[in-house]
Structure formats: C-alpha cells, structure tokens
Write a structure and sequence with these properties.
Length: 405
C-alpha cells in the first residue's frame, strides 16, 4: 500500500510540474518557463509596434507553419483576384501530377479557344502541342491566360468544368470567401476571393507540393523564342523571397502574394488593391519586413518527444508514454518567445487497450492566461489489454484509490 501511495504522489508531482510548463524539450528548442518567472510588467524589449498601414485595400501576413494570422486588414473582404486566380489553377494541375492522373511530360493540344484568350500570354499557337511542364511555367511565370485555358481544358475538358474543380478545392481548403468562374482571373461578377483565402491557398501550394514550388521563384521563362520575366519584383530585390504570384486588372488594382523564409520562419504576405506595379512590391516588402523584424518561429518540441507518462488501468503495462506526433513550432513576437508555459490536459482515467497514435489529450502553449496554440497529445506506444487477473486487480486498486481523490 505504501508503494501505491508513493507512486500516486509521484504522478501528482509530475502533473503539477507539467502544468507549470516544465516539459522536457528537444536539443536547441526553447523550453517554456514557469509562470513564476514571467514578468509582472512588460519589459521594454517586449513591446511590438503596430503593423504598418499600407496603401492597399486589404492585406494579411500569415505564418506559413501554423496558418496563424499575424497582421490583417479587411482580410475577408471579397475582391477580384485577377491573375492570383492562377495559383489555384496551378495547384490543381500540380495535384493531378502528384496523383498520377497526368504527367508533366504530357503533350497538350492547344485549342482555338486557348489561343484566342486575351490578356497576358505565353504565346502558344493553335494546333500545336505543348508539354504540361511548359504550360505550368507559362501560368506561374508569364501569367499566361492562354496557358491557363489550355491546362484547364486538358485536365477537365472545359473552363467551366475546371472552375467547378477550383471551387471544390476552395471549399476543401476553407476558402470561405472565394468563388471561381474561370482559370485565368479575367473579370466576372461572380469571380472573387479575399486576402485571407489567397494566403490559405499559398500555404497549401508551399506545403502540399514542395517539389513544384520551385517554379514560383524562377525569374524568367522562354517559350517560342520569347523570353519573359516573372512579374514579382521582390524576386530581384529580396533574396529571401521565393514566390508566389502577381495579379492586375482595372477592377482589382495591382495585387501580390509573396512568401519569404529566414532561418526557420516562413511568412506569407498578401496585398490587394494597390495603384501600381511598384506599389504592390513596396507595400508587400514593408509587410514582410515588419513580420521578420518582430516575429520568429520557434521549434518547441520534436515529433515523438516524450512529454509525460500516464497511468493506464487494465493494461498489460501500467503506464503509457505521451507526446506529439508532429514537430511543434509557433511563430510569436520575438520578445515573448521566452515567456511561454506549457500545460498537458490528460484524462484522469485511461483504460486499455490504447492504440499507438491515439489522441489522449491536448498540449497547450500559453503566454500568461492566453492559449496561443494547441496540439493533440497522443500515445507514443500501444498498451494492450491486460490479463483477466490484471484487469480485476486494477479494478480493485482503482476502487480503493478513488476514496483519496
């Protein structure tokens, strides 16, 4: 009985330590500090200035790792996306390639409809055949409306059918303020998106198809003897910028979705409705500069890190190791990254069997009383059901210890 009480007290002490954020952390990671070490008043170095006011109609700054919005202004306002539409066109083509439905070496026959499409062009010719890879470059780098139509017809049979795929993808991604009528972004009353939605889309492009993302950083593409530059000026001005896409129509103004990475921090900036090519680049740069100056991504825990052991009743083993399946990273104000605490929320009574990877509780990352983020807490190992006599014995122990709860 003495050993039972000792074990129980040890578990309570461990739980108390976890609630204070004293979790083991991987090498090089920032260990959350106890609540008692948090400053009662902010130190001067903890202050973060207000984000810049941009000469644009709407904008967002998003952390690519978590999808957290760091800065926003009219983020969900529905606006014409112009050629930013082609990000969704490219995403669907990249998905089709990844799923094996098409190949980047497939030859696409250029229809009269694609050839006649106005606006920015890749300069493909009716009746010729162009590879999917070249057309994808034409969409992303040259913003070719003709290339976009050719790909849409190849993938779905028509622009209308392809637009249906675009809207299905938008719904799947949670792009709640987007609706697409064509693969090009040419004006239509029912064709719209928002700065927030376009940041969501950019995050999917970067995260879902990293092997294809490189095309967004290419500065030039030559087809049919015509060499055209990428319209994203930031690719020339900022070595940390590696994508994504520009857009412009009279109704939309000049727009830009850009992503940049410094060390472990990747940010996505979306700026809509500026009045010139130069303005969209300059305002997007201001937003990115602000983000990298005052925020950083910190890796807190490695995938598979053991954060605690919990009592299991009726199992072949008495405890199960708990941790996280994926790396836990957060983008935070630089000055507040040292003032974090962590808390594990675990059910009091766990009963076998437990499967490896089964969610057991939650890991909360906090700053003071504010919950900054949550991650599933999972079993890092399986615990099989114990023998009949083990289950009976645990039932007796559970009944007895219940008197002391």
């Amino acid at each position: 009985m003495t050993s039972l009480f000792t074990s129980r007290i040890s578990r309570l002490v461990a739980s108390a330590s976890l609630c204070l954020g004293l979790l083991s952390s991987p090498a090089g990671a920032q260990q959350p500090t106890p609540d008692s070490q948090m400053a009662a008043n902010p130190r001067p170095g903890q202050l973060v200035p207000s984000p810049p006011e941009l000469a644009a109609s709407s904008w967002v700054l998003m952390d690519a790792a978590t999808g957290k919005m760091l800065v926003e202004h009219n983020a969900d306002e529905r606006v014409p996306p112009a050629s930013l539409t082609k990000m969704m066109t490219a995403y669907i083509v990249e998905q089709e390639i990844e799923q094996g439905n098409i190949s980047d070496t497939d030859q696409v026959s250029v229809s009269e409809n694609a050839w006649r499409t106005g606006g920015s062009r890749m300069f493909i010719k009716e009746g010729t055949q162009v590879s999917v890879e070249d057309l994808l470059h034409g969409v992303v780098i040259q913003s070719g409306n003709d290339a976009s139509v050719a790909l849409s017809e190849y993938v779905a049979g028509s622009e209308t059918a392809f637009a249906d795929l675009m809207n299905q993808q938008a719904s799947r991604m949670g792009m709640n303020n987007s609706h697409f009528m064509n693969p090009t972004g040419l004006p239509h009353d029912d064709h719209f998106s928002s700065a927030h939605d376009l940041a969501i889309l950019a995050r999917h492009i970067i995260g879902d198809f990293p092997d294809h993302y490189e095309v967004y950083s290419e500065k030039f593409f030559t087809y049919n003897g015509i060499r055209q530059p990428n319209r994203n000026r930031l690719l020339w001005r900022d070595p940390d910028v590696d994508g994504l896409k520009t857009g412009h129509t009279e109704a939309a103004g000049f727009c830009l979705v850009a992503s940049a990475k410094k060390q472990d921090t990747r940010l996505i900036a979306v700026v809509m409705g500026t009045d010139s090519d130069e303005a969209r680049a300059a305002e997007t740069q201001r937003l990115l500069n602000y983000g990298f100056r005052f925020f950083q991504t910190r890796k807190l825990y490695d995938a598979g890190s053991v954060l605690n052991e919990a009592r299991v009743w009726g199992g072949a083993k008495d405890t199960v190791r708990l941790g996280v399946q994926d790396d836990v990273s957060m983008t935070l104000p630089r000055s507040s990254a040292d003032d974090l605490t962590a808390r594990l929320n675990v059910p009091e009574n766990l009963t076998a069997p437990i499967q490896a990877g089964q969610q057991i509780g939650k890991l909360e990352i906090r700053s003071g009383d504010e919950v900054l983020g949550e991650q599933p807490l999972v079993a890092l190992e399986a615990v099989e059901e114990g023998s009949f006599f083990k289950r009976i014995w645990d039932s007796i122990l559970r009944f007895i210890t219940g008197f002391f709860d």
